[in-house]
Specification:
This protein has a domain of 145 residues. It starts with 12 loop residues before the first helix and ends in a 7-residue tail after the last helix. With 237 residues, it is mainly α. 73% of the residues lie in helices and 0% in strands.
Length: 237
């Protein structure tokens, strides 16, 4: 009996359209934030990096929450697609949290006078980066998909515990990092630009996640075809 590998899934057309719209909105929202808002009274133009820095951090948290969700669903359903979905979110989240740290350092230099300090918010964020970089490294330790998925799920769930720690670090410990702003503490024009960027970053993240998940499925299908060819594609029963 000849066993044929399943055809690789196709990316739905609506995802491509969604991606194009999200990119246009992202560029538009950034242009409005940079050129349509005045400089901050205290920080001047330096403040405008927060239109990228804060959304990057928020989307990283969202990504790691997605990793935890995919990990729990894999352990429950034992469906490898959830593991692939979690891994795709982890890749995006790791890149975003690294960008968050870099952006924060750029903001900190003129504001605090240093590129880096072992502030609780910064330290817990650095730990988060190491945890998810370790998550991705762990996935290369074995070619057994089931074992890789179980190991990754454990790290993905435990690593998510650090998300609320990072969020509340500015309230739990003495820190020079500012606490989260509220709608009452931000001028309307800054708040509108911030919320617009937050929304468009979220849309763009969804597009990237769907696309990376699709690519990961193509990679699995290609690996399956290579394995099939290696064993001759024939199983005798």
């Amino acid at each position: 009996m000849r066993v044929r590998s399943a055809s690789p899934p196709r990316l739905p057309k609506w995802v491509s359209v969604f991606g194009a719209v999200s990119v246009i909105l992202l560029i538009t929202s950034q242009a409005l934030a940079l050129f349509g808002t005045p400089p901050d009274r205290d920080m001047g133009e330096t403040m405008k990096i927060l239109y990228v820095h804060v959304p990057s951090a928020w989307i990283a948290f969202l990504a790691f929450g997605t990793v935890a969700f995919g990990s729990v669903m894999y352990l429950w359903k034992r469906d490898l697609r959830f593991d692939v979905f979690a891994a795709a979110a982890a890749e995006l989240g790791t890149v975003l949290i690294a960008l968050t740290i870099v952006q924060g350092s750029i903001w900190a230099r003129p504001t605090w006078g240093v590129w880096w300090t072992w502030d609780p918010r910064l330290t817990t964020t650095a730990i988060m980066l190491l945890v998810y970089a370790g998550y991705l490294a762990l996935r290369s330790f074995t070619d057994d998909e089931e074992r890789r998925a179980r190991w990754s799920a454990a790290v993905g769930i435990i690593g998510a515990i650090n998300v609320p720690i990072v969020w509340y670090s500015v309230k739990w410990w003495r820190t020079i990092h500012q606490v989260q702003s509220t709608t009452e503490s931000v001028d309307d024009i800054f708040l509108a630009a911030f919320l617009l960027n937050l929304a468009t970053f979220t849309l763009f993240f969804v597009y990237l996640l769907l696309t990376r998940f699709h690519v990961a499925q193509l990679e699995r299908a290609a690996d399956a075809r290579l394995e099939e060819r290696a064993i001759g594609g024939v199983i005798h029963v």
